[in-house]
Amino acid sequence: MDALERAAVExxxxxxxxIDFCDRTVFAVAAxxxxxxxxxxxxxxxxxxxxxxxxxxDAGALYSPLCFVLAAACRRIGIVPGERxxxxxxxxxxxxxxxxxxxxxxVAWPVGTPASxxxxxxxxxxxxAGVTDRPTILDHHNRGLALxxxxxxxxxxxxxxxxxxxxxxxxxxxxxxxxxxxxxxxxTKHAA
Length: 192
Fold this sequence. Notes:
Layout: H1 3-24, H2 33-53, H3 63-77, H4 83-106, H5 114-128, H6 140-164, H7 172-191
Helix pairs in contact: 1-3, 1-4, 1-7, 2-3, 3-6, 4-6, 5-6, 6-7
């Protein structure tokens, strides 16, 4: 198993632990399935609004709402991203980093960072999924597809955000968890 595969497995297990934590706590407030689904939707919409309405920061402030969005979206559509999805996310972020370095040298205006670009895609997918306070024109089926895209963009945003954010020592939980993601991805760079 190479460094990239190890990172994907580590991140898969890490997100699974976040989802399991949410299953035992915030999603478990109700015993009956319809009420549990309502709790999941409540967590999703509350945190999706925070993500969409927040500016990208370098202190890790989006870490918790992003994790809740990913966990709730995964439960809502019945998936848990596996090794393959994490491999794609890591590779996409690394490829975009290289592309942006080339573009920044060639154009006079700021293009953005990988995290800022992936956040834009995540925000748009969350809006289209109908889980924010902004209107969507999509029907129920297509909202589900948009929520799947939100998970896709959310994984990429998380990887890029972990590489770019530098939480202070006071932000211990966000700092520790983002460091786990950052370390897993940075090890793939050193192995390449």
